[in-house]
Amino acid sequence: MAEMMKAVRLREFGAPDVLRYEETLKPVAGAGEVIVRVHAASLNPPDLYLRDGYRALPPEWRPSPDFPLILGTDISGVVDAVGEGVSDFHVGDEVYAMVRFPHDLMTGSGAYADYVNVPASDLALKPAGIDHAHAAGAPMSLLTAWQFLVELGHDAPNPFQDLAHAPMELAGKTVLVNGAGGGVGHLAVQVAKWKGAHVIAVASGKHMTLLRDLGADVVIDYTRQDAETAAQDVDLVIDAVGGPDMERFLKVLRKGGALYIVNPLGFTGQDEAKRLGITVSSTQVRSNGAQLAEAGRLLNEGTVRIVIDSQFPLAEAAAAHERASRGSIQGKIVLLAD
Ligand SMILES: NC(=O)c1ccc[n+]([C@@H]2O[C@H](COP(=O)([O-])OP(=O)(O)OC[C@H]3O[C@@H](n4cnc5c(N)ncnc54)[C@H](OP(=O)(O)O)[C@@H]3O)[C@@H](O)[C@H]2O)c1
Question: How far apart are CA 116 and CA 123, in angstroms?
């Protein structure tokens, strides 16, 4: 007989109250897949975009999926069952993953649930030194920082430019992180420090103490001072905010420097960058269990830590989305499944 589980599902796009905690079928493992009993899941911007039907995109690009959907990509939990051909993971293993991203970008990967079906190649053992809530906060934000700053790890076509994104060597370089208090930003700060960079962190005032604790050498409160006038001769800017006027960061870079734009929609400075001798680059994060295993060592030893903004029971995912919509997130918002 089919087994049932609880999950947060949506039957239509809309505001956070479209998220419903309800009974549904427990997934079963296909070949190469693992069923994970989810202990914690975290929120990421694509969860909010999909809940809202990607309203910022032109109508012809918006999704028209079969409802109901289960949102979410990032989980930490325990292996409940393994499918045919899976030899690297066993029932009872503690694991974490970013599930099928961007493959399931327009349908949701099923993470806001008691159980989720995960390709074994997306999984890694959870760092033993951190709990499920912190591990669930890591996958998308940490893989984004890793694939932008350390190793791309895939050869998927770049949605933004013809050339593949190529992380620069960071030892001894000055790196400015914009959006440094957020999910991607707080990990980019720590990864750049680990790589030996001098780090300038840009965020609103409430994040200043945290960012110093995380190792930032200089902190700039953008509500008091424009980052583009406070910094100069920077080797690399990683902009983890996007939106209007990303081009302003070209002014803080030295000739030969680079601007990595995590949210590239609307960037118009390619010609100016070429004139100034600055590389502008972007990429889309992709699931990668091997990279999570490698980066997990930094989480395990405490070199990189996950900061939790707030935690909610899985049943209160709508309240978690309301918190996310208010912005100014510090680290990660986490859902606890038990
Ligand atoms: N390319 C990819 O594959 C990829 C992967 C992951 C994320 N993303 C994109 O990257 C962006 C960040 O993602 P995230 O998960 O880090 O989001 P997040 O956790 O919501 O963090 C965003 C941060 O930006 C800060 N911020 C807002 N306005 C700012 C401004 N004007 N100047 C400086 N900081 C500002 C916010 O706090 P304060 O205002 O309080 O400082 C917040 O901490 C999103 O647009 C997301 O879609 C892209």
Answer: 12
